[in-house]
């Protein structure tokens, strides 16, 4: 649903960024769905949230080719706040790219487990801009 899949296994809530054809680039509906799934972590039976990406990347940042970008800045900030504010551990399982908002997403988590293939980049800094998704405060 909206590029996010999830399942529960005991006390583990596993959330997957599930747009591998776009390297899990996020759009507004996906960010809203991700926030809703993270908020499922408030359930008493959830002990930990694990966040990962399908395919060969964790998250390549914002989808710059799609049309679903209205409200993306607000949705991204709310999503990062939901992760950072969850009173339970959130673990990012990062493989491949964690770029731009994808890097901020990983930084918002309590623990990052990075595969050898993982790389992190705050894309906006390459052009002299502040990074998105609150990365300056999260780093």
Automatic annotation (TrEMBL):
Entry-linked InterPro entries: ClpP/crotonase-like_dom_sf, Enoyl-CoA_hydra/iso
Gene Ontology MF terms: catalytic activity
Organism superkingdom: Bacteria
Pfam families linked to this entry: ECH_1
UniProt-listed PANTHER family: EG:BACN32G11.4 PROTEIN, ENOYL-COA HYDRATASE
The name this protein goes by in its record: Enoyl-CoA hydratase
Species annotation: Mycobacterium xenopi
